[in-house]
Every structure is written in structure tokens, then in C-alpha cells.
Amino acid sequence: MITNFPQMIRITQKFDNRVLDNIPEQIDSKINNWRFENAVQRGQTVAVACSSRGIANYDIIVKAVISGLKSRPCRADQPH
Fold first, then answer.
1. In-domain check, residue 10
2. Spans of the chain, pLDDT less than 50
3. How high is the pLDDT of residue 24?
4. Which string of DSSP letters, residue by residue, matches 2-43?
């Protein structure tokens, strides 16, 4: 029995190897530039989905994102 396989090619993947100093500060800076105060109203919730896929310092990144979102003025338990 002969099986015909599709033609295969070899590929390579190059990863960005930049290193960020002070990850929480970098994330906080990006979150502070977001304009979503009108998109999230008092009483609404926000879900954060995470998938590491081998990202370095993933725990620090997720913690910084959650902390940054909680500090936003649109947070339901903080007065506007």
C-alpha cells in the first residue's frame, strides 16, 4: 500500500529576545494609557484570560495586569 503525504518544508521560528526591566512598571504604564473608563460601568465585571505558552516571568506579568486593572478608576468598589 502506498500513502501519498503532502510535501513538507522545514521552517524556523525566531523569538524576540528583548528583556524588559521592571515589568510591573512597564505594564502599569501601558494600562494607564488605555481609555476604557466608559466601556466598563459600575457593577460590571471584567474577565482576564491567561495562557502562558512558555512566557518568562508569567506570574509577574499576570499579577501586574490584575493589579493595574484593579487600580483603575472604573473599578466597581471605588467611587467615580
1. no
2. 76, 78-80
3. 94
4. ---PPP-------------SSHHHHHHHHHHH---TTTS-TT
Grid cell in block for residue 33: 494609557
What is the sign of the dihedral through the CA atoms of 52, 40, 64 and 35?
positive
Is 44 part of any domain? yes
pTM of this prediction?
0.64
In a domain, 41, yes or no: yes
Give me the pLDDT at residue 60, please: 94
Domains: count for the chain: 1
